[in-house]
Amino acid sequence: MTDHPRLPSPQGLAGNTTLDPAATGNTTVPQLVVLIGPAGAGKSTYAAARYQPHQVYSLDQLRAVVADDDCDQDATTDARAILAAILEARLSRRLVTVVDATNAGVADRAWLLALAGRHQVPATAVVFTTPLRVCLARQANRPGPAPGRRWGRAVQAAAVVEQHVRTQAALATLTAEGFTHVTEIDTHADVL
Ligand SMILES: Nc1ncnc2c1ncn2[C@@H]1O[C@H](COP(=O)(O)OP(=O)(O)OP(=O)(O)O)[C@@H](O)[C@H]1O
Ligand SMILES: [Mg+2]
């Protein structure tokens, strides 16, 4: 893991990559934690190991809420609307909140930064730099579409490649975008 404490870091957020629950990240200092990384990079695993379930919101989970299918990309707009409502409610209370999504594009992050700014809560970024080959290999362990469904958990290789490229590019812009702290995580050598 590489840490970039460009501004004073939120106390305790900079942790290690162990999945020991005793070494969880800071779950008390108010902040919006934005995970950034391609499919299979380890975002959800990281969040589940460090935060309480009610602190973590993923588009996958909210697609399931609105469409009974966490993979249904057509449900993304509705899922994002619910995410926005949840973030408004939680950040108005200054609660630590983690957004677990690919968040690879500037526009994906801009509305999150704006929302955090409106509530005067710092936004911090956790960037998953897990190698592309590892992200791709992890797709092989995931199911394809269920019968009658268009999408499965396995993400197409071309999409993973694009997400990986955009994640690498993000590293150069996150501080300028407004993130107060950037942490890099590479999960390829971890053992669950
Ligand atoms: N720290 C880790 N060490 C070893 N293997 C890991 C680690 N994190 C994740 N993995 C493996 O990678 C798989 C994908 O991880 P995870 O579901 O957390 O990725 P993700 O970034 O949330 O992907 P998606 O964007 O598709 O939801 C896990 O099922 C697990 O097998
Ligand atoms: Mg995930």
Query: In the CATH classification, which architecture applies?
Result: 3-Layer(aba) Sandwich
Rg calculated over all Cα atoms: 16 Å
The total tally of domains equals 1
Distance between the termini: 16 Å
Helix content: 25-40%
The strand count comes to: 6
CATH superfamily: P-loop containing nucleotide triphosphate hydrolases
Principal-axis shape equals globular
* Overall average pLDDT: 87
Along the chain, the helix and strand elements come as EEHEHHEHEHHHE
The third-level CATH topology is Rossmann fold
Major pleated sheet: 6 strands, mixed
Helix and strand composition category = alpha/beta
Strand content: 5-15%
By CATH reckoning, the class would read Alpha Beta
Keywords:
alpha/beta; binds magnesium ion; globular; P-loop_ATP/GTP-bd_All4644_prd; six-stranded mixed sheet; kinase; P-loop_NTPase; transferase; binds adenosine-5'-triphosphate; Rossmann fold; single chain; kinase activity
Describe the structure.
The protein is α/β, with parallel strands linked by helices and 192 residues long. Helix content is 38%, strand content 14%. The chain has one domain (2-6, 27-185): 3-Layer(aba) Sandwich (Rossmann fold), CATH 3.40.50.300. It contains seven helices and six strands. It is globular. The model is unreliable at 5-24 (pLDDT under 50). Adenosine-5'-triphosphate is lined by residues 37, 39-45, 60, 102, 138, 155, 187, 190, 192.
